[in-house]
Design a protein that fits this description.
The structure holds two protein chains of two kinds. Chain A has 27 helices and 22 strands. In chain A, helix 1 runs parallel beside helix 3, helix 18 crosses helix 25 and helix 25 packs antiparallel against helix 26. Chain A is an alpha+beta fold. By secondary structure, chain B is mostly helical. Chain B contains five helices and two strands; from the N terminus they run αααββαα. A two-stranded antiparallel ribbon of chain B has the order 1-2. In chain B, about 30% of the residues are buried. The model of chain B has no long low-confidence stretch (mean pLDDT about 85). Classes of the chains: A alpha+beta, B mainly alpha. Chains A and B meet through helix 2 and helix 3 of A and helix 3 of B.
């Protein structure tokens, strides 16, 4: 079905008076549909836009007439004429109009998008009552937060009991998923294990049923669960009967006792996790096997603390440091070097976003200021260029006010056009940013075009309008002469010209800085995009399974189930090979072994080498296209009861035994138990987890046979036929898995190609963004340069004429103009490259596979600037060389 | 437009068109009826402003109904001519007729 053009319809909906809105939009939609059937979509869209504009003009005129009475009629009429005239004039200079509008649109669009992000970051308060009294409790080792893992159960209890500044403390653990089965349908669901007081601290009140009671958090209590609103709607069809239902979490029965309201977004939500089900913290042990309460060093939990009345964060921190000292003394083996950290929620969620938002805002504001300045300069030149025409108009009887109005209207048309396009660009950019999970900053996802943004947009449009029409309003076009022949010859003095030259040089400098930045990011993206992972990613699909529950407690059952899954998956139509390789996901978590040569593990902790651990089956390496460089692959003899063996990646083997690793034994720990593995093979390096992380460092991987080290988390790899349909393969696979175990959800199904694209998206976005900015800056610089020279030549026409008459060659004239322009460019470019040379280090963290001072990029950026700059000089130079001496002297 | 209770030309056309369109008199059909009978396409903005004015004058009543997918789920605004509207139409015709009278020799009987 054809729909009216969305943007136009949306604008119309906003602009129409409420009483007329439905009627007009509905009628228009109906007519549009008929038009589309009769004349085609493209025609119908054009028709729609035309209708909208014509109608709005009529409505505006009518409202104006009603407000101002008949006296304003004439004026409104002539305004309409001015508008029409202005549009016609602009159409006759499409280059100037198009470029100006585009520059305004990009500058305003970028600013509006950033304003939206900023307003989400600064203006939206945390949706919790007393949020300013809440803090996140974590622990730090040697003053550094250890990877986000924060407090242990026992430490948290000590913290609460040892302070009186902390009034209440809730603990939660939110980084686990469980298999939620209801009605025989299993689904992978994010779980949040929480203290019973967690909801109360955040001000959540269940909309159905109740929250957790304190006794339900005791070990051995009957397991209960509270559903998030999303789960309740998605899985239980929003039925009130969900209360009292029995669900299985990882095969363990839980009774649903409550449902949270839709706006109950917990802290995890702000980190980008969507909790589906809550259970008391005491359930974390049975469900995940984590021993939370037994060990003081089990630092898996987050603490949400609320300050007691009258207490301050500083006071609480002082008390916490006393507690930490005491623990370090009484339990040095677990607490030596560990201190508490208590950060206000506001800091936790907004500080990062705020500093980057501030930087963005500063950049955008600078850009807008520059755009305005340049446009003002450009508008002035534009007007002076037309001085002859305008003087003619005046002589023919147009009043000074009328001429001014004509020019102001033109400027406003440009500003409004740019502003409108900017709004469209901003909402497009926000949609894009919001849909990218990689930008997990909460403020980014929540940014939208709201009232603040629209207001800012209006202010910016007016500012641009003023900049564009300022020179006109100040009478730049007016000439003291009464003869149109003389008009335009006179202009600003040397001071103004020098100022403009400095502006142009600054624009060139800025453009070269941004071009270098854009060049680096684009080159980095290009390299990332074309970097292989070291294994064959074509038509590769990953799915995950989690073999939780009692029935998989026996390793033998795990092994058999895994084998059956692989066999069944391999038989699905469209699947060429199925094989085991866990864990595997680009950008996902890895499992690690710490390895040493035998006997060194305890003797020399510094000698431990961290390596990513992969559980694979015989043939997996071949299936992945990873080459075996030495030794042998796993085979059937590497069974559960056989000697423990491992294959090392080349880099890891070189690190441990540069002299040759085959046949050596490597020591590690499995849980608390010691373990020695015999190295039977060496595999080529592969980037299993990511191309982005540590691109320069070694790929340290250790492969062990699944048969000897079965894990409940399972990643299954499917190599599809090139023409196989992923969705139907997934459906067939789901059926087969259900036949094996109906409570087993298949999750995280993704093609490797998709995962690679996801991994690249951040790089893609920043490259696009900076390239866009660089484009604007380049356009401004070129425009400014061209304007400056064109204007100078117009002023010096007489002088050029004299020189030509005295025998100067036309080449010499053109050369002088080009020389003058390129000297400015050289100054700006040199300054810009020096600034970029020192500033590029800021980008080092975002670059992949190239140094921030890559000479090729610097050279390319300089070339990208010089070429259009030369054209901008050459055009006026050519014009100068064509000056007719007799004309110039006579005028 | 005029203050004496008679109708302007466009107003008269719109009123008559509403009568022609009967139960289904809303923006699209009203405009269509005018075009069908006079060959003249009324500017959209002018039509809605005229309809608004006629409602204000008490010649038309309007109600909203029947939103469907064909019109982006916006309801139609159906118009009906009120008694005062009928009188205004008649008054307009009468004044035109008075103007015609005595000009038959020039204009014919049309």
């Amino acid at each position: 079905m054809t729909r009216p053009p969305r943007l136009t319809a949306g604008l119309l909906a906003r602009l129409l008076p409420r009483a007329m809105r439905d009627e007009v939009l509905g009628d228009l939609a109906e007519d549009h549909r008929q038009m589309a059937t009769a004349a085609g979509d493209a025609h119908a869209r054009r028709w729609y836009r035309h209708q909208a504009v014509a109608m709005l003009a009529r409505l505006v005129a009518d409202r104006g007439r009603r407000l101002a009475g008949p006296a304003a009629l004439a004026s409104a009429g002539s305004l309409l004429t001015d508008l029409r005239f202005g549009l016609r004039r602009l159409r006759r200079q499409p280059g100037y109009a198009g470029l100006t509008t585009a520059v305004i649109a990009i500058a305003i669009g970028a600013n509006a998008a950033i304003l939206a992000i900023a307003s989400a970051a600064f203006l939206a308060p945390l949706p919790y009552p007393n949020a300013d009294r809440l803090g996140l409790l974590s622990m730090e080792f040697g003053g550094v937060n250890q990877g986000g893992f924060s407090v242990s159960y026992q430490d948290a209890e000590s913290a609460r009991d040892g302070t009186d500044a902390i009034g209440d403390l809730a603990l939660f653990l939110d980084w686990q998923n469980v298999n939620l089965t209801w009605n025989g349908e299993p689904e992978r669901t994010p779980v949040n294990f929480v203290s019973p007081n967690y909801f109360a601290l955040l001000g959540f009140r269940p909309m159905l049923g109740r929250g957790f009671r304190a006794d339900e958090n005791a070990a051995g209590a009957a397991p209960v669960a509270v559903l998030s609103h999303g789960t309740w709607q998605g899985r239980f069809g929003a039925s009130p009967d969900a209360i009292g239902e029995r669900i299985l979490l990882n095969d363990l029965p839980h009774v649903v006792i409550g449902v949270l309201p839709p706006d109950a977004h917990d802290l995890s939500h702000r980190f980008g996790l969507r909790t589906g089900v809550y259970t008391p913290l005491a359930q974390a042990g049975p469900l995940t096997g984590l021993d939370l309460r037994e060990r003081r060093s089990a630092r898996y939990l987050y603490g949400l603390a609320s300050l007691d009345d009258g207490a301050t964060f500083t006071g609480a921190r002082d008390q916490l440091s006393v507690v930490a000292d005491r623990l370090a003394a009484s339990a040095p083996e677990s607490n030596e070097g560990w201190t508490f950290a208590l950060r206000p929620l506001d800091d936790v969620f907004f500080v990062d976003a705020r500093s980057s938002t501030l930087m963005l805002s500063a950049g955008a504001a600078l850009m807008l200021a520059l755009v305005c300045t340049s446009l003002a300069a450009l508008a002035q030149l534009q007007v002076v260029g037309r001085a002859r025409e305008l003087a003619m108009r005046q002589m023919l009887g147009a009043g000074a006010g009328r001429v001014t109005r004509l020019l102001v209207v033109e400027a406003l048309i440009l500003a409004a056009g740019g502003g409108g396009l900017g709004l469209a660009a901003a909402s497009w950019a926000l949609g894009l940013i919001g849909s990218l999970e990689v930008l997990a900053m909460p403020a980014f996802a929540q940014a939208e075009v709201n009232r603040v943004v629209v207001l800012g947009l209006v202010v910016m449009t007016v500012a641009v309008g003023v900049a564009l029409s300022g020179p006109v309003a100040l009478g730049a076009w007016r000439t003291r002469s009464s003869s149109p022949h003389d008009a335009g010859v006179r202009d600003t003095g040397a001071g103004a010209r020098r100022r403009r030259a400095v502006l142009v040089a600054a624009e060139v400098a800025l453009a070269s800085v941004l071009l270098v930045g854009a060049g680096l990011l684009v080159a980095s993206f290009y390299r990332l995009h074309h970097t292989g992972l070291g294994f064959d990613t074509r038509h590769l699909v990953t799915v995950r399974l989690d073999l939780r529950g009692e029935r998989y407690a026996e390793p033998d059952v795990l092994r058999q189930t895994a084998q059956r899954l692989v066999d069944d998956a391999g038989a699905v139509p469209g699947v060429r090979e199925a094989f085991l390789w866990s864990p595997s996901r680009l950008g996902g978590g890895n499992w690690v072994y710490f390895l040493t040569r035998p006997g060194e593990f305890d003797a020399d902790p510094l000698a431990r080498v961290e390596a990513s651990r992969h559980h694979i089956a015989p043939g997996t390496l071949g299936n992945l296209g990873i080459t075996l460089l030495a030794g042998r692959d796993f085979d059937a003899t590497d069974a559960a009861d056989g000697p423990r063996v491992a294959i090392l990646s080349e880099s890891l083997a070189d690190r441990l035994w540069p002299e040759g690793a085959i046949g050596r034994r490597v020591e590690t720990r499995s849980g608390q138990a010691g373990l020695e593995l015999e190295v039977i093979g060496i595999a080529s390096d592969a980037r299993h987890r990511s191309r982005v992380n540590d691109p320069g460092t070694d790929q340290r991987d250790i492969y062990v046979p699944y048969a000897q080290a079965p894990e409940r988390f399972l990643s299954l790899q499917l190599r599809l036929h090139p023409e196989a349909d992923v969705a139907s393969v997934a459906a067939a696979l789901r059926d087969r898995v259900r036949a094996i175990d109906p409570t087993l959800p298949l999750y995280d199904l993704a093609t490797m190609a998709q995962q690679m694209r996801d991994e690249e998206s951040q790089s893609r976005v920043s490259a696009t963004l900076v390239a866009g900015y660089a484009g604007v800056a380049l356009a401004l610089a070129v425009l400014g340069l061209y304007g400056l020279l064109a204007h100078a030549i117009r002023q010096e026409q007489r002088e050029i004429g004299i020189r030509l008459a005295l025998g100067a060659s036309r080449q010499a004239i053109a050369g002088a103009v080009i020389g003058r322009g390129m000297a400015l460019v050289a100054v700006g470019l040199a300054a810009g490259l020096v600034a970029a040379f020192f500033g590029a280090r800021l980008l080092a963290g975002s670059l992949f596979g190239l140094p921030p001072r890559d000479p090729v990029v610097f050279a390319a950026a300089a070339a990208a600037l010089l070429l259009p700059a030369f054209v901008a000089c050459a055009v006026p130079a050519l014009r100068a060389s064509r000056v007719d001496p007799s004309d110039a002297l006579r005028s | 437009m005029s203050k004496d209770g008679t109708l302007g030309e466009l107003e008269l056309l719109v009123m008559l068109s509403v009568l022609h369109a009967g139960d289904r008199a809303y923006g699209v059909t009203i405009r269509q009826a005018i075009e069908d009978r006079t060959g003249r396409m009324v500017a959209r903005g002018a039509l809605y402003l005229t309809l608004e004015r006629l409602v204000e004058k008490g010649y038309l009543t309007a109600r909203m109904a029947d939103a469907d997918a064909a019109r982006a789920h916006r309801p139609r605004k159906y118009y009906r001519v009120r008694r005062a509207g009928i009188q205004a139409i008649k008054a307009s015709r009468a004044s035109v007729a008075r103007m015609w009278r005595g000009l038959e020799s020039v204009l014919g009987d049309a």
